[in-house]
Design goal:
127 residues, globular, alpha/beta, 6 helices, 5-stranded parallel beta sheet, Rossmann fold
């Protein structure tokens, strides 16, 4: 697909440090018809957000390397880009649900792909 074709589709940023899980999430969201960008940590995600205006949804894991968690990333996104819909996921359901920033959505792992895709659609429909 050409760059122009991809830019016409809504963009979702997947932030996941585990390469296999990141690739699976990218495939799941691309298969639903969305343009997907990926980052392995919060620092890379912030760079992508600063460089690309078209990101409408961020799908992030909680546990990340290098000191910045997905919850901290979500808080930063909501403060800096309040129009971006943030979906948070974690295998540690209790810890994740207790600390989810306002306006964000949480899915425990393993998550139901159809529910995540529906939430991506919901998040992009408000743009």
């Amino acid at each position: 697909m050409s760059q122009a074709d991809q830019s016409d589709r809504p963009t979702v940023l997947v932030v996941e440090d585990e390469a296999i899980i990141r690739l699976a999430a990218v495939d799941m969201i691309e298969s639903a018809g969305f343009h997907v960008m990926a980052a392995a940590d919060a620092t890379a995600a912030m760079r992508l957000l600063e460089d690309h205006d078209g990101i409408g949804v961020v799908f992030t894991d909680v546990d990340m390397p290098r000191g910045v968690s997905g919850l901290q990333l979500a808080e930063s996104i909501k403060n800096r880009w309040p129009g971006i819909h943030v979906i948070i996921t974690s295998g540690k359901v209790e810890a994740g649900q207790a600390a989810v920033p306002e306006g964000c959505v949480f899915f425990g792992k393993p998550y139901h792909e159809a529910r995540v895709v529906d939430e991506v659609r919901r998040g992009l429909s408000g743009r």
